[in-house]
Write a structure and sequence with these properties.
By secondary structure, this protein is mostly beta strands. The chain has a single domain, classed as Beta Barrel (Porin). Helix content is 8%, strand content 69%. The protein has 2 helices and 14 strands; from the N terminus they run H-E-E-E-E-E-E-H-E-E-E-E-E-E-E-E. Strands 1, 2, 3, 4, 5, 6, 7, 8, 9, 10, 11, 12, 13 and 14 form a 14-stranded antiparallel sheet that branches. A hairpin with a 6-residue loop joins strand 2 and strand 3. It starts with a helix and ends with a strand.
Length: 233
């Protein structure tokens, strides 16, 4: 089993089994949404100077979310959240040794992140009551990137797939709407920075295999809209 989902399931088991946590202050969360990546320029450490580049266009993909939350105070929730963005298509104009080549470079990316979030209940802070309960939040954690093989149209050059990871953070704004005593609808917008995704340094061309000076690397930043359900235990 993937280590990130396993760690979330372990945390859920610990929290729900621990009598120190009031059960009615715990909630489970599951949702789906859309992640839209920003335009980014990726640099490839080939053996030429200047290095090759590819201008990745903006792209979108479905995003999935699981989480467990706990109400620390009347106005503050903390949440352990697992997010997955699958099959993000990164493609764009390829620049060979500083000059446009007329070709398109392409790869596919899966990003999985686990974060700890702090969510501030604005209605509680303002001591008021609204039909919707708005909140703001920020979180940080770790993101893992699984980058597929990078290819160039009409060219035999390839860069091998690779898994990389590092620090990630997000800021979000949302609102919950109670459906029943235990169930709530959660709608949110988030800006997320998942850090840098990297390819392998192993590549191949017509003349055979080679190693790059450094991998293809690009920052992964997304705008995300999510629709989730919260179930309070």
């Amino acid at each position: 089993m993937n280590k990130l989902p396993l760690s979330l399931l372990t945390a859920i088991a610990i929290v729900t089994a621990n009598p120190a946590f009031a059960v009615n202050d715990i909630y489970l969360k599951a949702g789906i949404g859309w992640a839209h990546s920003k335009e980014q320029t990726a640099t490839i450490g080939d053996l030429a100077d200047p290095p090759d580049r590819v201008a990745f266009d903006a792209s979108g993909s479905l995003a999935y979310q699981l989480g467990i939350g706990y109400r620390l105070t009347d106005w503050l929730d903390t949440e352990l959240s697992l997010n997955h963005i699958g099959g993000l298509d990164l493609s764009g104009t390829y620049e060979d040794d500083g000059s446009p080549s007329g070709e398109v470079g392409r790869t596919e990316l899966d990003t999985t992140a686990i974060m700890v979030l702090g969510l501030v209940d604005l209605a509680a802070v303002l001591d008021t009551s609204w039909p919707l309960d708005p909140y703001v939040g920020v979180g940080a954690g770790y993101a893992r990137h699984d980058m597929g093989r990078f290819t160039i149209t009409n060219d035999s050059a390839r860069i091998d797939s690779n898994t990389s990871g590092g620090f990630a953070w997000k800021a979000l704004l949302g609102a919950t709407y109670p459906i029943s005593e235990q169930l709530s609808l959660d709608v949110s917008y988030a800006y997320a920075d998942y850090g840098e995704a990297e390819s392998s340094i192993n590549a191949s061309e017509r003349d055979g295999d080679l190693q790059l000076n450094f991998p293809l690397n690009t920052d992964i930043r997304t705008h995300e809209l999510s629709l989730s359900l919260r179930y309070r235990l």
